[in-house]
Amino acid sequence: MIYQGKQKIWADYQKEIPDNHWFYVRSCIRQNFFPGAEKMFMEICRDLLKKDIFETENHTTCGGIAYHCDTIPQETVMTIVARQFALMTEAGYENYVASCITSFGNYIEILETWKEFPELETRIRELLWKACRREFNKPKYVAHASDLVYKYRNEIAARAKYRLVNRFTGEPLRGVEHIGCHYAKMFPARGIGGAEYPYVLCGMIESWGGNVIDYPERRHCCGYGFRQYHVKANRGYSLSNTHKKFESMEPYHPDFILTNCPGCPYFMDRWQYVIAETEGKTYGENGYGIPVLTYEELASLVLGYNPWDIGLQLHQVAVEPLLDKIGIEYDPAEKYKGLNEKEIMRPELPGVLRCC
Amino acid sequence: MKENIVIVGGGIAGLEAAAQLLDLGFKPIIIEKSDHLGGHVADWNCLFPDMSPAKDIVSSLIARSADANIFLNTEISFVNKLKDSYNIMLSNGISIITRILLMTTGFSLFDAHRKEEYGYGIYDQVMTNKDLEHWFNTGDDKRINNSAMNAVGFVHCVGSRDEKAKNSQCSKVCCITAIKQAIELKQKFPDAMIYCFYMDLRMFGKKYEDFYINAQRDYGIRFIRGRVSEVGENIDGRVIVKAEDTLSGKPVKVTLDLLVLMAGMVCNPDSTKVANMASLPVDSDGFLKSKDNVADIIESPKEGVFYAGACTGPKTVPETLAEARAAALKIYLYIKGLE
Known about the structure:
The structure holds two protein chains of two kinds. The two termini of chain A are 36 Å apart. Chain A has helices at residues 3-12, 30-33, 36-48, 64-68, 74-91, 101-116, 118-132, 145-151, 153-159, 181-184, 200-207, 227-230, 235-249, 263-279, 295-303, 320-326; strands spanning 22-25, 53-54, 95-98, 141-144, 174-178, 211-213, 256-259, 292-294. By secondary structure, chain A is of the alpha/beta class. Chain A contains 16 helices and eight strands. Chain B is α/β, with parallel strands linked by helices. In chain B, 26% of the residues lie in helices and 26% in strands. Chain B contains seven helices and 20 strands. Classes of the chains: A alpha/beta, B alpha/beta. The interface between A and B is medium-sized, with 18 and 13 residues.
């Protein structure tokens, strides 16, 4: 591996990201999967770094899931997106930041399509007006939320309580980064680092003290892939894709996996349990799995937030081995306590995959 | 004869044209940017289909054109159009007034870094056709381990016929060069499995088809019709190549000790630079635009400006030499017409 070769490509795919004043739209599914992630994005960006990030309860799905499952006409998706842009316009913002990778890809694809086919944009404006009497300006800038955390990565590093360093060995932790397919594969120039060697998550890991591992199936889909999972008959295919990735990364002994997509952390986390049950195989040390984190969760950890306050107890794969390596203090007894010390339900422990 | 004839480029086209013009009684001037003559062919080891040593051809051309005025390490600073001639200022401070300009600026090799998915400059065991020729010439390249060459792949059409790379043209020579290089590697590593990933095999030249059959029948080289989708690196540093075999309709994944990218021909930026100075038109493929692509490929639309070789598009060595001879004759007749 020639690291300087990657650096050259990364230099070619940098993009200007406005520092402040963003209209934020959440994902349809992330709050069900890892509810702490989006909360922590707002907490870090708005409350800690004092950025102006606005969100409204009126926003809806972008239609991306249905679009990629082939169950919705493109004009309908465009009209939904036009309504989102109208909300941004009404709130007085010009920079649009999406929590979801598929939404990000959806927005970029629609804006590019309108650029190529302006008559389609005109029609969508008419449809939006007929549907809900709204008008919109196109955003001046569309970012994915991981772009913003990438931009703020050094500010986060400066405030970090922990580094991604193994406190037992003194060596940088070994991180695998997994980029959502819709981040840059469709429009490489819109992703930090491009499509083949994206830098957006690498930059965070490096800035926070870790090392990034490249492995043969790095580019491969996490296994979610919409129709791979949503069509029930295809779920074995979803699992086999995830299995392929874990088999490929296994020899590198990663300490954690970092993701920037709603589906990827979920499937790479949950399918480890299924692989363990069906194959009897685990990929972490001592029978544990490899912890899979969102970038917001990892940022929160290095900043010193309580792991249970950021929702890490909702991961299938136990995060405790990673917390121990970083040296993060946590109280195992508090893992399943919610607000005001209220006991939340404890999951049944799996038979093969070791959990704490 | 005292007519100044300026030849821009000291590759095989420039040398052959100079040799012919010398035979016709002129003393042409060759302007060459680099420190040596022979262009890309000087970097090559053997030439298809007869495995002729490239250095023999280049040294023969250099010997035949030795009486020309040759400026190495020299660029054209600017070109001024005068009433019926050109004033050409060279980077060494010399100014030449000429009525005849022969462009033999050739091509540039496509920068394989631009096909990021193939990992050139990223993964240790990926090289280009040019790198491999360098190894054939010198035996010096740490990517080739003489004791561990069990599997090698060649990717055809790297940067050619590729809309994404903004090069829609076929580079003509890559198919046959890949076969030549695959055979040469097989001769050096008889036990190695060698794969060629292609989208079309364009075996148009003399003996090319025979060469292709030999590669399959006598050397056991495997041809897989399908473009490589991505390249990765194993933990032991070997490259993993994913492709689709479009004949069997199945995905293919192979682990290789070496991957060779057949980088194609693109227009030479120096050609474009001189073309801009002399107000010469550039075609849609970026190469210099001829007066007519069928009848007058060696003539530019400008009075007194001629072309030979790959400055107008990808060419084989024999085609380049033939064009150089034709251009020399055309220049001779043009000068006769001026008298």
